[in-house]
Write a structure and sequence with these properties.
This protein is an alpha+beta fold and 1984 residues long. Helix content is 45%, strand content 8%. The strands form 17 sheets. Strands 33-32-34-35-36-39 form a 6-stranded antiparallel β-sheet. It has a 3-stranded antiparallel β-sheet with strand order 26-25-29. A hairpin with a 5-residue loop joins strand 17 and strand 18 (1026-1028).
Length: 1984
């Protein structure tokens, strides 16, 4: 041992490379090299820490075998012959998935393989991995070979050589020891200790694991060595078996013994679920784990340590080796059952789940491998047992029905396993393996497996039971339903559809039988367990939405019949069982409608969430559709009368079906207010059963079309919304015919932009034929998550049919319910249910109550008519003649109320339609009396059709009037009269215990003629309340109640009180009272007929009754059209004999009710004419049209009934003649005239009521105004007012409207008005560029090198200021330029005014408001009170603004005299402002503007001086003028023809238009200007700061010699020469220092003088760009020189003077060499040869003079309100501006015009020019280079500021930037964002690049945009806009091929640049409108 130690020591002294070479030689020559084991014992000693760098480095060198590790790595890579990529990634990695190339839905590709593969035109998407994955490129079991890249695939590595044997010999010897060391480390740290002990152990081994990752990355050759060591059992045994250790190494032996002990304890700590006895010997379910390889033990530690990421990636990295893949899969399956235990007890189940799936999805996606695991290791059994075991630990007792008899146990959805979805990895893996057909077949072939599976599903059956809260609102809303629905979808539905996908033909029919058999057994066991033995067990207050066993039965039955040829009887359970099976899905349906009708409202919002989830697109196929199919089967197999009676009972509408007085017991399920909604629900449910063909035979294409139409009818949808919302069969994916169906039913509406700037996405809208032929309201109701969605679809349908004139009526069309498609022949038509006598009785009752004044909604009527129409449509043809005799038999004497099965003798529809129901026997009810101890009476507000203001609210009651007695209670007799003068004497007598009937004294009991103007009945209520006994609908007429067989029916005018015929029976508590749905009133009387009685008179033309009740009873006011007005009272039920009548006289048939309903809906008696079906309705005349209103559909139904048989046709005619006999006698014309007159009378009365109301309103308004005027007059009376003086003052001064107090006043010193403005900093001007071409956002290194950031105006200005600062006195150069190119202050206004005092109050109120999160009120922000635009300051309005006169001293005629006057004005000291409110406001405005930008932009000197402050003030004016010019497009060209590149901008359209689409431009309204008020504020402060002789500068510019100035220039050497001063800056200075209301002549003088200076500057600059030869051509001849002295009126003269003077200096010496360079810098405008071509030089002069002329023109336009000239072309801009500015006033020949014509010299031009050039010569002689730099680039053509040009494909941006490092922190940002102004990459929302606690994006927005930044977030494709302290998500400028955004790149489809959106973004930036156009701002708090 000692000698070995010495040898190792000697060996290590050789150094790493020498020792490695020695070891390599030994390994190459011998299988067991000398000294290697001893060396490894030293290096890999477990006593040393595993992450020791020296050890790891030694191992790398040993592996290299004498080479360097890098050399070894590169050599090994050469022999990488792997055919698959296998790149492993973790969460958030960006990968690709191509559905065109994929075989498995789980396939994925890395970006490199995807880019190198051919996927053009494929259906692919980019995605961000959630759990991690691996690249499948080259794997033929996962994807097609056509999608492989050129590096992978079976054919890619054919000619690759294999590695030499000696290359890997050391690796083969060393690798097992390396893996052993890792195993030892994991064993050591497996003892339970600190909470993060496992995490720490993996962190400690990080460097060691990194080394193994590096080895794996060397390629297939090294991976083969690693997998060999991992999978060799002998190696594992040799290195881990302690018995094999020699005694000499006793220390190491002891360590290994201890290690093995720790390992054994660790195995015991990870138990597996208890398997069934028959599977105990399954290798993967054994209690004691036995590991045979390093790989198996490493997988064990991976599970034990909860799948550490780095170990998982290491295991997956070697998957390209096929043998290793199988070994890893076996090891994974061996530990699979234990993984479920880990998931259950993990503290972070979400992360663990993702990592488990990261492994399993790679292993189980291979079909052959998955099948081998199922065959040999019982993988399916392991999965099901694991799932079942996990759920068995969280069971609780089911509470359905009677809990005492319920022995079923379900999962507890509130526990962690369900809430955290701990089962998700197991279910995901099961779905994955079941997607392989052999595995699925094996699953369904094993009865034991199916039994276990359905036992597992039984744990979900009936889970999460909801109990209806009836007393008070639930205190805490549970959120367990999320877990329940997710569990059923993932653990039940997904496997169900996976299995079903393999049962596509008759070859697998036996598998389906097995599944159905197991399912029925499980279902029967479940019914027994919950003790559900009878279908009528009460369950009305509870429901569970979760019935997976029912749904498996339903879905597999459907599949067996549709695709496998089985008949219904082959798969149906027995009828008695079927009845039991039906009840729970039916209960779910009923509960669904109960929830929608707010009957579960006390259970909170979560119960509505369950109802909506039940029909949501991801669940509906698996839940509601399956339930409906099962119920449709039950409806055809269970006797119709039983099925219908059950449905009626479960929907709680049986009580409503009664004709007895409505009595509601205390223990009833629902209040009366839910009767009609539940009736509507019941009918909707029946219509759904009849109509839906989802599983009854419709093909997939038609079903896809129906689903898509349903979505589109509820609203226009984007392509992604359609894909997302289309119902899916759990993982089945998008339908193959999706695009074809979409093209068929929808039109694409391209994305556009509204004028307001709102952005639309590409939408699909229904084609016109969809509304006419395909729109199915029943299916919309089935799929509508919110009921408002159905109403939206109906509104859209109505809008369409009215647009195309298919419906012209004023009413609303009925829903176009469709006749359903034929069923599959294997099924009976569910419409057979409608041929039941029970249904016919149900129809009769609904029609009867609709016709006789009950509050039956039109939707209920529509549903009943539709159902009856389907009944007629599907009626079986009977032998008519054999039925005649039975039909003519007398009806039974007694028909029991609510016994609907006894109403008709048979199911023969024709007979039942004609059968007249005469009398109904009513069951006696217990007496209901009012509880006298409870005086609470609830009133609901009446909604009156008429004008209630005209009616008295009470009627006088005579104290001595006659008394009526009801049960001993005295009732006063009321006197009423008819206001129209028609007196009806009515008898009102109440015999004790009987019912009052009101009739005409002489009305006969039978054969009564039709009564004119009949509408209402009267009834007396028990508590002495009186109400109209009938009600009318909102239509023009209603049918009378209770007519006998011979009585005339519907009256035509509803406005008059109706009289009864004398035979009617009117219960006083008729539910039709006042249109309410129910009533709680009852009368203890019997029905009694009185032919005459004491007369009472009716009062009220509009049927409003006002009664003075007796004994303090309440008065009920009602009307014919009111829907409310219902009196509610608490009552108690008393035992005793009922005094209700036991019979109700009806005398109606279904046909008679349909005829009356038609008349009722159309508003005309006898409106149905079978010969003219369209005469009384508005509808499409086509036969099959479903477009029409109520009368249309009723008429359509009557026509169908007529065609049913001759008996029906004759019965319809007979019934019409019986009901309206007078119709035949009266002439048609007379009847129409009568009806028209009555309608006209109604309109007249309504108009009179309206006029009366309006007159009353007007009189009140007039009275108010008179009082207000009196107050104003009193206030004005005391004022001493000079009328003439006031008139002149008002004419001179402008008035403003205050938007707060609404007063119109002038602005005064003491009470100033202000203009609402927004002050903000901007760097727009600084982004002007020399190059006319738009800069490109770089997406490659070449483009990045070409991106110039130094050619901007801001960069040029910084260089110029730096040069001026070095050469001149700050007091001089500060007045020679303007600031504001970066961070300049811009002021904009919405144009509204307010008093400053009002603003103070407004701001104070804003500060007091609690919620002003979107405003920084403390910084002065507020919303404009009128237009709600953001503002943060106010510009005071000087009183001078409105004055009509300007300062004109004597209006001098000559230019020199004007110059003299201006000198005097500048010489006068400006008066100090008098302290006033106006002065204070102006100071505050200036302070706001000063605070509006950042400090570094305010001044260029270290300390403030008057000159630096004045520079800031004057620059504000310049900035606003320049920004306006930019917004006008960079020039003043106004014609649309100027949309191309102009001389002053890259685009002349600017912001004069807003893009609506890529090809359409619409103009934007021009911004309101605030230049003049702004100049007033700036001028006041500018004059205060001007403490230097400004007049002196004016004299210099004008060329006037100052007497006080010395001739020598020495004191002025540090002053900036005039030829280097900015003329525009001088213009703004003079304007601010002179009075703003100067006469226009003075302004023109200033412009003329400055133009002279500008002209000389431009000429001097151009001369610097000439060669010596070119300059020589401009030298004048001697004669010209002598004759033109002092003129300076031509280009030649000026150029000659300038060149002559400057040639004396050395300025031109270097120009000849650098001319070409500077030409390039000058841009296209300068790159012109000056080879003596005066025309070209002239054009250059004009072009360089234009910027000054534009600013001057804008100033003139604003100051003097003169319209700008209409400039139509770019070429005419210069001449038009020169004339506009009066530089030239006389017309001339165009050929003679040039820039020199505009020169106007107040003194001798030659002398002035000499003086200017002399100053420059002095500076040139002092600093030639600086002078040249300042002069050569003084005037440049700057092009419009633009955003960077983006590439068309977003993928170019994403691939280049998403992994790019930040330039500051050099890390890859999580949300990499690119500035669209300069292309800088910033770290968004990260602390790494913070400066002064400000994040990088915010700081960059300040530096680059003056506080405004636009950033493209690479990882989401969205634009983030930062504006000062706010930020917002602007939207995306990249859309997919369907015109949609892809926020966060979730869909991953290819994105393309939307040019219109990008233009909109640019326009909003240039117009500074971000604050106004974007509303969703947040405070970024410097955190972006």
């Amino acid at each position: 041992m000692a000698s070995n130690s010495i040898a190792v020591h000697v060996l290590m002294k050789k150094g790493k490379r020498g020792a490695a070479a020695y070891v390599h030689a030994g390994c190459a020559n011998s299988a067991s090299p000398q000294h290697l084991c001893e060396l490894l014992d030293v290096l890999l000693n477990p006593e040393k820490t595993i992450d020791e760098w020296e050890t790891i480095d030694w191992v790398k060198w040993l592996m290299a075998g004498g080479r360097t590790p890098d050399e070894f790595s590169s050599i090994v890579r050469r022999y990488d012959n792997a055919t698959t990529c296998g790149l492993v990634w973790t969460a958030n990695f960006v990968a690709y998935r191509c559905r065109t190339c994929g075989i498995s839905p789980c396939m994925s590709l890395c970006a490199e393989c995807f880019q190198k593969g051919n996927h053009d035109g494929h259906d692919f998407n980019m995605f961000r991995s959630q759990a991690g994955g691996a690249c499948d490129c080259g794997d033929t079991s996962v994807m097609k070979e056509t999608g492989f890249c050129d590096r992978h695939g079976p054919k890619s590595q054919v000619n690759k050589p294999s590695a030499p044997s000696d290359l890997m010999c050391v690796a083969e010897a060393v690798m097992p020891r390396i893996i052993l060391r890792l195993i030892q480390h994991l064993r050591e740290h497996s003892k339970p200790g600190a909470p993060d002990s496992y995490l720490i152990a993996i962190q400690d081994a990080d460097s060691f694991l990194t080394m193994l990752h590096d080895f794996s990355a060397m390629g297939a050759a090294m991976r083969q060595v690693m997998t060999g060591a991992l999978t060799n059992p002998q190696i594992y045994k040799n290195l881990t078996d302690c018995s094999l250790e020699s005694a000499s190494s006793s220390e190491y032996h002891a360590y290994m013994v201890e290690s093995k002990h720790i390992y054994g304890e660790a195995i015991k700590s990870l138990p597996n679920p208890e398997p069934p006895d028959e599977y105990k010997y399954c290798p993967s379910l054994q209690e004691h784990l036995v590991h045979r390889t390093f790989l198996e033990e490493l997988v064990f530690w991976t599970v034990k340590f909860e799948f550490p990421q780095k170990v998982v990636c290491l295991l997956l990295n070697m998957l390209p080796d096929p043998d290793y893949k199988e070994a890893l899969t076996q090891a994974f399956v061996l530990h699979y059952s234990r993984i479920s235990m880990m998931l259950e007890r993990s503290t972070d189940p979400d992360t663990l789940s993702n990592r488990v799936v990261h492994v399993s999805v790679q292993l189980f996606s291979n079909e052959s491998l998955a099948f081998r695991m199922a065959e040999h290791l019982n993988l399916l059994h392991v999965m099901v047992i694991s799932l079942k075991y996990m759920m068995s630990k969280i069971l609780l007792q089911n509470t359905l029905h009677d809990p005492d008899k319920n022995f079923h146990f379900v999962v507890d959805c509130a526990l962690n396993v369900m809430r955290e979805h701990c089962y998700w990895p197991l279910v995901s893996d099961l779905n994955n393996v079941l997607s392989h057909r052999p595995v699925a077949v094996k699953f369904m072939s094993d009865d034991n497996l199916l039994e276990m599976w359905f036992a597992f599903l039984s744990m979900f059956q009936g889970m999460n039971v909801n109990l209806r809260e009836t007393s008070q609102h639930v205190e805490f809303e549970p959120n367990t339903y999320y877990a329940a629905f997710s569990a059923e979808l993932e653990a039940s539905a997904y496997p169900m559809w996976a299995l079903l996908s393999h049962l596509s033909d008759s070859s697998t029919v036996e598998l389906t039988r097995r599944v159905l058999n197991s399912c029925q057994i499980a279902l029967q066991d479940w019914l027994d367990a919950i003790h559900f033995t009878h279908p009528h067990m009460n369950d009305s207050n509870q429901v569970s939405f979760h019935l997976p066993l029912h749904r498996y039965l339903s879905v597999f039955m459907c599949q067996a019949i549709k695709h496998q040829g089985l008949s219904l009887k082959d798969v149906l359970p027995p009828r008695d069982v079927l009845m039991l099976i039906m009840m729970h899905p039916l209960r779910v349906q009923v509960a669904f409608y109960e929830i929608l009708r707010d009957m579960w409202v006390r259970n909170g919002l979560q119960i509505k969430g369950q109802a909506m989830t039940y029909v949501q697109c991801n669940f509906c196929n698996s839940m509601v559709d399956a339930d409906l199919y099962l119920l449709q089967i039950c409806a055809t197999q269970i006797p119709p009368e039983i099925f219908l009676t059950t449905v009626i009972d479960k929907f709680h509408v049986m009580e409503w079906m009664s004709l007895a007085p409505c009595v509601v017991n205390d223990d009833s399920f629902q209040d009366g207010e839910h009767d009609i909604p539940m009736l509507e629900s019941c009918l909707t449910f029946l219509a759904t059963l009849m109509n839906i063909r989802t599983n009854l035979g419709v093909n997939d294409t038609s079903l896809s079309q129906l689903e898509m139409v349903t979505l589109l009818c509820m609203g226009d949808k984007t392509h992604s919304q359609l894909i997302e919302l289309m119902p899916e069969r759990c993982g089945a994916g998008q339908s193959r015919d999706f695009e074809a169906v979409l093209t068929k039913v929808a039109d694409y509406k391209a994305p556009n932009l509204e004028a307001s700037g709102n952005m639309q996405q590409g939408m699909y809208v229904p084609k016109p034929n969809v509304w006419e032929e395909l729109y199915d309201p029943i299916h919309v109701l089935l799929r509508a998550i919110h009921r408002r969605d159905f109403q939206t679809s109906m509104d859209r349908f109505t809008e369409y049919v009215q647009q195309v004139s298919k419906f012209k009526g004023s009413g609303t069309p009925w829903p176009p319910f469709r006749i359903p498609a034929p069923c599959n022949p294997a099924y009976e038509d569910p419409r057979k249910l409608l041929c039941s006598r029970v249904f016919h009785a149900m129809v009769f009752l609904v029609l009867y109550k609709a016709v006789h004044g009950q509050n039956v909604s039109e939707h209920v009527m529509a549903l009943v008519i539709y159902l009856l129409e389907m009944a007629v449509e599907s009626a079986e043809p009977f032998d008519q003649w054999s039925q005649v005799c039975p039909a003519s038999r007398p009806e039974p004497k007694e028909i029991k109320d609510k016994d609907l099965n006894s109403w008709y003798k048979s199911d023969w529809l024709s007979s039942n339609l004609r059968t007249v129901i005469n009398m109904i026997k009513v069951e006696p009810e217990p007496t209901v009396v009012f509880d006298s101890s409870d005086s609470e009476i609830e009133w609901e507000t009446s909604e009156l059709e008429g004008d209630i203001s005209d009616l008295p609210v009470s009627a006088a009651v005579g104290g001595t009037g006659s008394v009526l007695m009801v049960e001993g209670i005295p009732i006063q007799a009321y006197g009423m009269h008819q206001s129209s003068g028609e007196n009806y004497h009515l008898a009102l007598t109440v015999p004790q215990g009987e019912m009052v009937v009101v009739s005409s004294p002489d009305s006969p009991r039978q054969d009564q003629a039709a009564l004119p103007s009949i509408q209402h009945h009267l009834a007396v209520l028990a508590g002495t309340e009186m109400v109209p006994a009938g009600s009318t609908s909102s239509s023009s007429s209603s049918s009378s109640a209770g007519t006998s067989t011979s009585q005339s029916a519907l009256p035509s005018i509803p406005q008059h009180l109706a009289l009864l015929a004398g035979t009617e029976v009117v219960p006083a508590n008729n539910p039709s009272l006042s249109g309410a749905s129910t009533t709680d009133l009852s009368v203890e009387t019997s029905y009694h007929y009185m032919p005459s009685a004491s007369p009472i008179t009716l009062h009220g033309a509009h049927q409003q009754m006002s009664l003075a009740p007796h004994n303090s009873s309440e008065v009920l006011i009602s009307s014919s059209g009111s829907r409310k007005g219902l009196l509610k009272n608490r009552r108690r039920v008393m035992a005793g004999t009922s005094v209700y009548p036991d019979k109700v006289e009806v005398n109606e048939s279904i046909i008679s009710l349909l005829l009356k309903l038609h008349s009722h809906l159309s508003g005309n008696p006898d409106s149905y004419n079978p010969d003219e079906p369209s005469s009384s309705s508005n509808f499409d005349p086509s036969v099959d049209s479903r477009i029409g209103d109520g009368p249309y559909f009723v008429a359509k139904l009557l026509q169908r009934i007529s065609s049913l048989d001759s008996l029906c046709r004759e019965n319809i005619q007979e019934t019409r003649h019986r009901l309206w006999p007078q119709k035949q006698e009266e002439g048609e014309e007379e009847q129409r005239e009568k009806e028209a007159k009555e309608r006209e009378d109604r309109r007249r009365r309504a108009k009179e009521r309206q006029q009366k109301l309006m007159a009353e309103f007007a009189s009140r308004q007039k009275l108010f105004m008179e009082k207000a005027m009196e107050t104003d007059e009193e206030g004005l009376a005391g004022m001493d007012w000079n009328e003439e003086e006031g008139a002149s003052l008002l004419a001179a001064r402008r008035e403003y409207d205050c938007v707060i107090c609404s007063q119109t006043t002038t602005s005064a010193e003491d009470k100033p008005m202000g203009l609402v403005v927004l002050v903000q900093a901007t760097s727009i001007l600084g982004h002007k560029r020399r190059n006319a071409e738009q800069s490109i956002l770089p997406t490659s290194e070449e483009e990045r090198q070409n991106l110039r950031r130094d050619d901007s105006l801001a960069s040029e200005f910084d260089r110029r200021v730096e040069e001026l600062g070095r050469q001149f006195n700050p007091l001089s150069w500060l007045l020679a330029v303007n600031l504001g190119w970066e961070g300049g202050v811009h002021v904009q206004t919405c144009g509204h005014h307010l008093h400053l005092d009002c603003l103070k109050s407004y701001l104070k109120s804003l500060r007091g408001q609690q919620r002003q999160q979107s405003l920084a009120v403390d910084r002065g922000e507020y919303w404009c009170p009128l237009c709600r635009q953001l503002a943060n300051s106010v510009l005071p309005l000087s009183p001078q603004l409105g004055e009509g006169t300007a300062i004109v001293r004597s209006r001098p005629a000559s230019l020199p005299s004007i110059v003299f006057e201006l000198t005097n004005l500048l010489t006068e000291n400006p008066p100090n402002p008098v302290p006033s409110s106006l002065a204070d406001a102006m100071a505050k405005a200036m302070e706001d503007m000063t605070n509006g930008t950042h400090h570094k932009f305010k001044q260029k000197t270290s300390s403030p001086t008057p000159q630096s402050l004045f520079l800031f003030v004057s620059s504000i004016a310049r900035t606003n003028l320049e920004v306006e010019l930019v917004q006008r497009g960079g020039s003043l060209v106004t014609s649309a023809s100027s949309s191309g590149h102009t001389s002053g901008s890259s685009s002349a359209t600017g912001l004069a238009s807003s893009t609506v689409s890529d090809n359409t431009l619409i103009p934007l309204k021009h911004k309101r200007s605030c230049i003049v008020p702004l100049l007033h504020v700036l001028a006041m402060h500018g004059r205060l700061l001007a403490r230097w002789p400004a007049w002196h500068m004016w004299q210099q510019v004008a060329g006037i010699r100052s007497e006080s100035r010395a001739v020598a220039l020495t004191p002025y050497e540090k002053e900036v020469p005039l030829l280097l001063r900015d003329p525009t800056a001088l213009l703004t200075q003079f304007i601010l220092l002179l009075p703003l209301h100067l006469d226009q002549t003075y302004f023109s003088c200033i412009v003329k003088v400055l133009y002279n200076l500008l002209y000389f500057q431009v000429v001097a600059q151009l001369s610097c760009h000439m060669t010596e030869q070119e300059r020589a051509q401009w030298h004048p001849s001697d004669s010209e020189q002598s004759s033109s002295c002092g003129n300076m009126m031509s280009l030649d003269e000026v150029m000659a003077l300038v060149i002559g003077l400057l040639e004396e200096t050395h300025l031109y010496q270097l120009e000849d060499l650098n001319c070409s360079i500077h030409e390039g810098e000058m841009g296209s405008s300068m790159a012109v040869s000056f080879q003596g071509n005066r025309d070209r030089v002239e054009l250059q002069v004009q072009q360089l003079c234009l910027p000054f002329l534009r600013i001057a023109a804008l100033l003139r336009h604003h100051l003097y309100n003169q319209a700008l000239p209409d400039i139509t072309t770019e070429q005419s801009e210069f001449v038009r501006l020169v004339y506009y500015l009066e530089l030239v006033t006389e017309g001339m020949d165009w050929r003679l015009f040039n820039a020199a014509v505009a020169l106007n010299w107040p003194t001798a031009g030659n002398e002035t020019g000499h003086a200017w050039c002399g100053e420059l010569v002095v500076f040139v002689n002092r600093s030639q280079i600086s002078a040249r730099n300042l002069l050569i680039d003084q005037h440049l053509t700057w092009h419009q500021p633009r955003l960077l040009r983006l590439p068309y494909l977003y993928d170019k941006i994403f691939q280049y930037y998403h992994r790019r490092q930040c330039n500051q922190c050099h890390s890859v940002p999580r949300e990499a964002s690119i500035c669209l102004l300069c292309g800088t990459l910033v770290c968004l929302k990260e602390a790494c690049c913070k400066q002064s606690n400000v994040c990088e994006a915010v700081q960059h927005a300040i530096d680059c945009g003056g506080g405004t930044g636009m950033f493209l977030v690479v990882t989401s494709s969205y634009i983030i806009v930062i504006r000062d302290k706010r930020a917002c998500l602007w939207g995306s400028v990249y859309l997919d091929s369907f015109g949609e955004e892809d926020r966060e790149l979730k869909r991953g489809k290819p994105l393309y640049l939307s040019a219109s959106r990008y233009r909109l973004l640019e326009e909003q930036w240039l117009s500074l409108h971000f604050d106004h156009t974007n509303k969703k701002w947040i405070w970024h708090r410097d955190g972006l």
